[in-house]
Amino acid sequence: MTQLKHLDNSPPTPGKFKMDKSPYIHRLRWHGSLAKLTFWSFIFLGLILIFFFRSPSSNSLPSDPSRRSLRTYNWGGPAWEKRVRSSARVRSRHGMSVLVTGAAGFVGTHVSAALKRRGDGVLGLDCFNDYYDPSLKRARQALLERSGVFIVEGDINDSALLSKLFEVVAFTHVMHLAAQAGVRYAMENPGSYVHSNIAGLVNLLEVCKNANPQPAIVWASSSSVYGLNTKVPFSERDRTDQPASLYAATKKAGEEIAHTYNHIYGLSLTGLRFFTVYGPWGRPDMAYFFFTRDILKGKTIPIFEAANHGTVARDFTYIDDIVKGCLASLDTAEKSTGSGGKKKGPAQLRVFNLGNTSPVPVSDLVTILERLLKVKAKRNIMKLPRNGDVPFTHANISSAQRELGYKPTTDLQTGLKKFVRWYVSYYSGGKKASG
Ligand SMILES: NC(=O)c1ccc[n+]([C@@H]2O[C@H](COP(=O)([O-])OP(=O)(O)OC[C@H]3O[C@@H](n4cnc5c(N)ncnc54)[C@H](O)[C@@H]3O)[C@@H](O)[C@H]2O)c1
Ligand SMILES: *[C@@H]1O[C@H](CO)[C@@H](O)[C@H](O)[C@H]1NC(C)=O
Ligand SMILES: *[C@@H]1O[C@H](CO)[C@@H](O)[C@H](O)[C@H]1NC(C)=O
């Protein structure tokens, strides 16, 4: 299985796959929205089935986050509330008070630190699951703690905890980054996608809807929703009805759920479709990260190619650019318009691509890493397995450019140099890379 853990796990996306020619897709085209509705009904039905057939006793994987949700977290009490309040306290004049879910994650850590730096109030929430090495999440937590950000340990599907947080702090914004990421993990633990990306998201939106005042919500979708699209670059209006993985399906479902809460309850919602984010403190399950580890170890790395020796490429986006896009989204988010379960008027609903707009072949990524690490990689060219990865991603960012002033400035060479510098220093302190 490890050799299949290849490309970056997260933003799987699209390209020139033959599946595009299948009769099924043609039918979709002819029957338009009816077929689309049927299609999504099936996806939802599937998710519900997966959800219900996974009884806790039927799965004893120690790394199953759904089981972990049965774990009781320690929260509550005057000392805890004091820490929560102090972390969320706004320190600049027009600052906001933000709940950041997934704060011990890669993107969550960087966004939390950036918000705190400019004087916003920040409270983190994370369950520290072991989808990848939890010690890396703990190290990020320690980093945030030093800058005054407290991460509450708990699950986004815990409604009592979320309600309590909103009782203690009147958050003006929620930056929702907690999710089950990665595409290949679905073979091992499909329920974790339902738990975090569907049930957890609904729970979060329910609590936000009930909060008074309601916060504005910015959340991470994924470029994977473009699925097996062949039209590039991907624009926000392009079709998103051909997911290539359960991960992508839950992100797409999340977008539909978010729209629903916007329509019915007046929640202000902004969905961000990230394209292969990389950088210091990154995710060990992603290709750039474990390529670095394996090249240094002298281990052979699998490099995928698409059908007919086609190139597999990714629109790699440096973390600092993503952070700027997240902060700009929060800054331009309008207030939610509902209260008491009813909306008083239409609320803002947005979706943006946050990419770099220049796809790089994965073999070029390896060449850059070889140069930075001064080690030659042992390459094993393999066919791209049909288990969730897509051959190609490329973002059209004109919408984010126009409305957020988003403009990525870090190219892959520059960004990888910073990643490698971090990697070497982090793992030379006696710590071992794992995953
Ligand atoms: N990194 C990328 O390239 C990329 C690309 C597209 C989309 N995204 C999305 O961006 C978001 C952040 O991604 P990341 O790369 O930082 O991933 P990450 O795995 O590093 O961070 C997610 C964090 O959420 C936490 N979490 C998961 N389920 C939870 C739950 N039920 N309750 C509380 N905490 C929970 C995890 O412990 C983890 O720390 C995710 O929604 C991901 O799907 C990331
Ligand atoms: C999420 O929480 C709800 C309500 O507490 C619970 O019934 C459900 O089992 C949880 N869902 C998952 C997938 O863990
Ligand atoms: C990018 O998206 C915009 C809409 O936001 C569209 O007008 C434009 O034509 C797209 N560009 C390309 C090259 O597809």
UniProtKB/TrEMBL annotation:
It comes from Prunus yedoensis var. nudiflora. It comes from the Eukaryota. This is UDP-glucuronate 4-epimerase. It is a multi-pass membrane protein. Belongs to the NAD(P)-dependent epimerase/dehydratase family. It is found in: Golgi apparatus, Golgi stack membrane. The keyword Metal-binding does not apply. GO terms for cellular component: Golgi cisterna membrane. Its EC number is 5.1.3.6. The keyword Membrane applies. Its main location: Golgi. GO terms for molecular function: UDP-glucuronate 4-epimerase activity. Residues 98-335 form the NAD-dependent epimerase/dehydratase domain. Homodimer. Keywords: Isomerase, Membrane, NAD, Transmembrane, Transmembrane helix.
